[in-house]
Amino acid sequence: xxxxxxxxxxxxxxxxxxxxxxxxxxxxxxxxxxxxxxxxxxxxxxxxxxxxxxxxxxxxxxxxxxxxxxxxxxxxxxxxxxxxxxxxxxxxxxxxxxxxxxxxxxxxxxxxxxxxxxxxxxxxxxxxxxxxxxxxxxxxxxxxxxxxxxxxxxxxxxxxxxxxxxxxxxxxxxxxxxxxxxxxxxxxxxxxxxxxxxxxxxxxxxxxxxxxxxxxxxxxxxxxxxxxxxxxxxxxxxxxxxxxxxxxxxxxxxxxxxxxxxxxxxxxxxxxxxxxxxxxxxxxxxxxxxxxxxxxxxxxxxxxxxxxxxxxxxxxxxxxxxxxxxxxxxxxxxxxxxxxxxxxxxxxxxxxxxxxxxxxxxxxxxxxxxxxxxxxxxxxxxxxxxxxxxxxxxxxxxxxxxxxxxxxxxxxxxxxxxxxxxxxxxxxxxxxxxxxxxxxxxxxxxxxxxxxxxxxxxxxxxxxxxxxxxxxxxxxxxxxxxxxxxxxxxxxxxxxxxxxxxxxxxxxxxxxxxxxxxxxxxxxxxxxxxxxxxxxxxxxxxxxxxxxxxxxxxxxxxxxxxxxxxxxxxxxxxxxxxxxxxxxxxxxxxxxxxxxxxxxxxxxxxxxxxxxxxxxxxxxxxxxxxxxxxxxxxxxxxxxxxxxxxxxxxxxxxxxxxxxxxxxxxxxxxxxxxxxxxxxxxxxxxxxxxxxxxxxxxxxxxxxxxxxxxxxxxxxxxxxxxxxxxxxx
Length: 729
Known about the structure:
This protein is mainly alpha-helical. Helices cover 36% and strands 5% of the residues. It contains 23 helices and 9 strands. Strand 3 (338-342) and strand 4 (348-352) form a beta hairpin. Helix 4 packs across helix 6 (153-167). The protein is elongated, with a radius of gyration of 29 Å. The model is unreliable at 1-9 (pLDDT under 50).
């Protein structure tokens, strides 16, 4: 009998291997040294389920904020059996969640912070320091479900922390909404080079010099928000830990007083959890099985909840009354001597000697049982470090002052990455504008199209060159970073210390241009701001350069920028915005371990540009002659100052060959004559060598691309000039 059966397919994978559903090697795995442009294409609208027309600011304005706050207050004492609240109050857990969301912020690149709801995704959702915060977010789900798209996760997480403090007696300083959620992990944040959580790989150039912590990092180990609670390297030493605390908090934009206030205020409520062994915990949320439904660290040893919870490994509360805002932290810290002990989980912690029974906090489940309070090594640093001790003594003697300083520091911690106050939404926004919000006076002057045209004409007839005007406008705007919405042309701070003296801003050239623009401005009937004059000068120069290329175009100009004063400018805070590299102007302050093209990607991503916008801007900036120091590298044209597509035409012309000529220097040689026609840097040549960038270059090199190139350049230019115009958004 003939067998007509087909071969069995049992056990075969129905997915074609090599597709995006598999874990096969990516291009980056195969070619690890290739320039990875992914950070410029993250958060594509395709990943956003709310659609392109969704406007979170408009939705938030419809929110009944007072109702949300009432619901959050009620939640604090609505304990759940599956994850019971310590002492029947979730305050400590909610504060830790908000703190750890905001505490990832660092000033060096403005990345991290609570502004995107990034804590929902890996790696943050699975960091060892974030153990059990998945439970805090899950407890908030009923409230998020109720208010829907009018309330982002990012805003809800911070507001929950605020309401936790309010419910325990602290008068908070205020709250602002406006944090829009992302929908997948951020790829642009460098958390460290370690390949394991809490690894021992050194982040320091010198372990003895804690200030040598690798930039832009603020935490001392992979997977920690701040410092190791047991001490440097897990070895208790409060004075050494104080060094880590000072550096870490400084990199979060906090001074010593704010640091002490935040340390004390964070530990005034709640407790640490280490009543069990860490190895009894299951995998983190990202590695948990499907039936865990996104929850991690499942403890199958005993109850694993309540008094048996394991989180940090330390065990105990810091104060006598951990659900009340009071001065108990400093009371206990100064009242007793402290000695080192081990928690049930084996972690080092400090406990008081001969403590009075009534000063002990009660058990989270049974109020008839009392335990010693505890302190971390960082807590002990608050009285061992001379500077911190002096501040701690002041707070101890003046509880009201402590509460006031903490409330403002907490507001700063949770709002530092939101940018200027014009982005703040809601009825609880404080009226006071703080120096760290980079205040800018509003400009009330309006100008007509004819008046704008007259100012442009005066600027172009001033003797200033196209490259001088474009470079100055670019330098003013390029400081913008979308990570924390700082910098940009608005405010005209390029006129002020420290920006006017930055090496990358070419102070002598800058002074010449600013003086000429101010001279023109002083004679105007309507004195628009210098910030507007600088941008308008760049726009006028680009129009002229485009016209010389045979393309008549008007560069859009939106007046209304204000001029900040020196008193409104924290010079130390702005120092971190100094450009030490700028591929758009072919500028490197010195050689770095990171390649110039990778540095350019980092700046591009911070400015909010895409890969093709980066390409068109670099090509245009080169032919406009805006290189730092007027170098000719990458200026692939004989008509400098004309907005032509010559950069792209030359880069794709096979009549030339390219060869190295020194450190970050290349020669472009005419194949027939053998003569050197142009010189270039890695930044220039990467646009021809990288396959993705070359695809953009070829578009602009085509014979029909002259007008498209100019239009695309102007659009990208205008995007940068207005990146910080939150008054228009």
